[in-house]
Amino acid sequence: MATTYCYYTQTTPTDNNKWTLSMWVKRAELGTVQNLVGAWDDGSNHCIFRFNADNQLDWYDYQAPASFQLKTNRVFRDVGAWYHLVFVWDSDNVTEADRMQTWVNGVRETSYATSDYPTSGASTVINVSGRVVEIGRRSDGGYFSGEMSHVQFVDGSALAPTEFGSVDATSGIWKIKTACYATPGNNGICLKMEDRTNLDLDSSSNAFTFTTSGTLTATYDNPSDNFCTLNPLHLDNITKTNGNTTATTAADAVWRSTYSTLGDEVGKYYYEAKCVTQGTYTGIGFATIDNMQAVNGNNNFLTTGGYGYVEDGRKNNQSTESAYGTSYTTGDIIGVAFNMTDGNMWFSKNGTWQNSATIGEIAANTTTNAAFAGITTGKTYIPAARFYNSTVWSFNFGNGYFGTTAITSAGTNASSIGSFEYDVPTNFTALSTKGLNE
To answer: Which of 57, 71, 90, 276 could form a disulfide with 114 if both were Cys (CB 3.0 to 4.6 A apart)?
Structure first.
C-alpha cells in the first residue's frame, strides 16, 4: 500500500465495550512501523493495530494517562505468507485477561512482552461516533507495506476467529471464510478487496462509504491463493517495492542477485519480468536454493544451479555463455517457462519465444529449440534475477501487474491461475499455492 490508505467515519456504536477486528495481511517490509488500522483523536487519545519496528504484533488503546496494550514476544517476519489476525475487545468480561485478545491463524497468542489489560467497562478510542478509522496507516504515517484482504470490524460482538476462518480438513492449514459476518453492528465493515474495480467497497450490510488516498493496486495474490514474490529476507542489497514485485539496484557496478519466495522440484511454471531500467549484464531465469545460499548476492547465472537469459541475448549457466536469442532492453518483457519435471527451460521476449521455439512445442515438451534441456531434476528451483549497475526489474508472477501498472491485454492461460501479459504454454501455471497444487 506504500503511501495509500482508505478511511471511513463511524457512527453511534452498538457497544463500545465489545468489538472484533479481523483481517488477512501479507507483509512486504520488515523492521519499520507498519500500521494496519488506526483511530486517532489526538496524541493522547488513539487506538493503533500494527507491526512495530521489531516486527512484533502490537495493539493498544491510549487514553492518557490510561494505556491498554498487548504486544507479542514473538516476531512476524514471514513475507511469503498470509497472516490472519483477530483482535478482540471485551471490557465487560469478568476475566481480566479475556478483555483484550490477539489471535493469529486461529491460535490465541499467550506470550506477551507487554500485557496491560483494560479495566472493567473501559471504552475505546475506536468505535466512537464521528471517529475516522484508517485502514493502512495511522494519521501521522507509518503506512502498511504489503497486501490486505477481508478486513472486518464487528461492532458489539466479541467473536472467535472461527467466524472468519477454519482449519482445512486435508492440509490442517488455517484458511479463509470469505463471507462477511452477518450482523456487523452499527459500525461494522467488510472490505473484501476482491472487486478489482472498487477495492474500497464495504460489502457489509452497513455499506459505509470509504475514501481512498493514493492508489490501491489490485492483485490476484490472496489468502486462498498465495503468489510468489521476491524475498526481502535475502540480504542482497536490492531495494524491493510494490509488494516485493519490483527490484532496484544502485549505480555502483556491483554484481547482485535476487530470489523469490516460492519454488518447486516438479511441475511446469511460467512467469514474466519487465525490464524497467536496464543496467549492464542484466539477466532473468531460475536458480536452485543451493545457488541462493552459495552465491549470496553475486552473479547467480555463472554458477552451478543458475540458468538465465541475459540482456545481450546470450544464455548463461556456470561458466558457459552462448548465443541464444535477441538482445532486450528497457521496456521489454521477458517470459520464462520451466518444466521442472523434465528439466527444460524456454524464454520469450515480448511474447516471441526465442531460438525459433513455438508455444506448441513448449507445451509438447519438444526441446529442439529450448534454451536449456536436461537440467538436473530433483532440486528446488526458484525464480531469480541478476543485476549490475542501475537496474530495475518488475515481476509479474501472475498478479496481473508490473509494479503498479496493470498488464495491457491478458494472454490465454489454460490454468486460469493468475493473469499474464502473453499467452502461457498449455500445462504451465503460475507459481502460487494453487499452482503448486496443480
So the answer is: 71
